[in-house]
Design brief:
A hairpin with a 5-residue loop joins β7 and β8. The chain has two helices and eight strands. It has two domains: 62 residues, 2,3-Dihydroxybiphenyl 1,2-Dioxygenase, domain 1 (Roll), CATH 3.10.180; 53 residues, 2,3-Dihydroxybiphenyl 1,2-Dioxygenase, domain 1 (Roll). The protein is α/β, with parallel strands linked by helices. The strands form two sheets. The protein has a four-stranded mixed β-sheet, with helices on one face. Strands 5-8-7-6 form a four-stranded mixed β-sheet, with helices on one face. InterPro entries: Glyas_Bleomycin-R_OHBP_Dase, PhnB-like. This is VOC family protein.
Length: 135
């Protein structure tokens, strides 16, 4: 079994997944909008280009997501996508990239449990924790 976070967006899924790919690497294997699918007649015309399903696969991770219908979108709360790194420099690079244009909740720094740890919300509202184990 693998646990895969599924992130919801309010019309910004395409941009978010392009950003996540630029930061985390990997390959976007799915980026499906309603336009041209059997779902199109059931979607408001202004939302047919919103993403119904996206998938980013990389070494040791997978992320999935989509744009929620406008009346159903809620700002993410009550969780964080947690990234674990062995290399503190790589963890700091990823944290800084995710935090840019977003909000830092806890700056990236050494803690009593980690060589580096930080919490942020990215520019799309997704909450992240970046943790670098003590060697």
């Amino acid at each position: 079994m693998q646990i895969v976070p599924y992130l919801s967006f309010g019309g910004k899924c395409r941009d978010a997944f392009a950003f996540y790919q630029s930061v985390l690497g990997g390959e976007i294997t799915h980026m499906i909008a309603a336009r041209g699918t059997p779902a199109e007649p059931h979607v408001a015309p202004e939302n047919v280009d919103d993403i119904m399903h996206a998938r980013l696969i990389g070494e040791g991770f997978a992320l999935m997501g989509g744009d929620a219908p406008p009346s159903m979108y809620q700002t993410p709360a009550g969780f964080s996508v947690s990234l674990q790194f062995d290399n503190t420099d790589e963890g700091k690079r990823v944290f800084d990239a995710l935090a840019e244009g977003g909000a830092i909740i806890m700056p990236f720094d050494a803690t009593f449990w980690a060589a580096g740890f930080g919490m942020c919300h990215d520019r799309f509202g997704t909450p992240w924790m970046v943790n670098c184990e003590i060697a």
